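Discussion board: Methods & Data

I've been asked by a reviewer to show the raw model output for two of the constructs in my manuscript, not just the figures. I'm not sure how much to include, so I'm pasting the format here to get opinions. Each protein appears as its amino acid sequence followed by a line of discrete structure tokens. Is this the kind of thing reviewers expect to see in a supplement, or should I convert it first? Here is construct A:
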Amino acid sequence: MKKKIGIVLLVIVALIAFRWINGKFGEFMRAKMMGAMMTPKVKLSQVGEIEYKNEIEAPGRVVAKYSVDLVARVDGYLLEKKFNEGDYVKKGQLLFVIEPQQYLIALNKAQADLATAKAQAIKASKDFARSKELVAKDYIAKSTYDDTLAQRDVANANVKAATAALNDARRNYNYTRITSPIDGRIGMLNVTQGNYVSTQSGALARVVSTNPIYVTYNVDSKQFANLRDSEIIPKNKGEQPISVEVTLPDGTKYEHKGVEDFWDNQISQTTGTIALRATFANPDNRLIPGDFVKVKVYSNKIQKKVVIPQDYVLQDSTGRYVYVVDKDSVARKKYVKISNEYQKFWVVTDGLNVGDEFISEGLVKVIADKPVVVLKDDELIKLKDKK
């Protein structure tokens, strides 16, 4: 009997021990499985290198190459306007007529005065010639000869004075007809017909040239140094022209490329920037003076640069970084230095080299200094299929 009881007790103890061991092992396995499930699964990609032309973007403004205020250069009533506001006008085209009568009268008088002066000069010259012959024969006094000489010189001077007066009268008369000094587009009329205008009246209207046209922009000293180092800005003006592109306010790319033709000779002490300018063809007048555009200046020299897609670069208070995986399969922050943006990439100047690996998928669940599971391409495909 005692033997049977001992066997029963032994079986009971064995069952209890088995259940306890099985429970602990189950907890261990479940914890291990949960840990494996919670460890982020990631994919690695390699840092690449591309050939590209270095470029810099900056806000710019469209500026007319020529902008001329049309002003009255003589006084009088504004009789005629020979254009419609907003018209495209040609150089030399008649635009305004100021009342010309008084200036025409002055011109006619000046012409008559010149004719009189010339006639008097001819007579004085003849008188002098006769007196010169007579004084040589002692038929007249030397003083009489001197008088005719002086009269001749005065008459010739009067001719010059009358000629100058005629030129002045003709100039004033011509000023009654105001023409366009350039090809361009005329703006709003500031003074209407019938008003009295003078040299103090200000601009009657303004003409601005539209083709070619300027785009001006500014870069800071660091950007300008980058332009010079990248040979975007040549050392000498005679070198290969610099290509410039602009994007219009609606986001469309302007179809004509410009040429950089000017950069200032100093950095502004107020803004810390330097002014640059490019000239663009504008046959369809899409570039309007005063409009704001985005300017892109790029080098003619092809360079090799280390790049990484922008989506994989994160940022904290220390700076920009990517996640890399060390030999222990732990995610680590790798801080990088970025020089500029190129298409969908960041150009990396320090921190990464070509061929270095970084985490490119699974970033959302990655925690710095925590383990990760690196998937191979086929494992990644299976994981996506399960989802």
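Construct B, same format:
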Amino acid sequence: MDSTKIQDETEVPGIVILTHGRVGEELIRSAEMIIGKMEKVIAVSLGAGEDPGDYRERVSNVLAKMPRGSIVMTDLFGGTPSNTAAVLSKDYSVSVISGLNLPMLIEAVNLRQTLSGEELAKAVEAAGRDGVKNILEILRQQTD
């Protein structure tokens, strides 16, 4: 790996969101409604019909500006954004996690001051899983 591609590892990790369409951009807006403005959180949207090689180049340009230990979150495992992140993770010091949801993004922003790399990815994955709830089942349990 060319160490000049990534900035110094003492910086707060960045968050790169890779999605089909503009889902990532909207998740950023939604998170900012809840926790306020977020720094170093960037969405790279895959356009309909976009060439995967062009998309990979755009994502690579963003990752080149991110500090070591940054995290890439994708919408769908096995999709072009996820596959792009997996390929580029060989060239950049980033963790990659799929199944992006709003709790994951908020957790990543809140924890990146103290965690990075795989530790951050594990915490974000747990937040994503914990954020999925069957609301009616919870309400039924509370009334029993």
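Answer (T.O., handling editor elsewhere):
This is acceptable in a supplement if you add a one-line summary per construct. For B, something like: The chain has one domain: 3-143.
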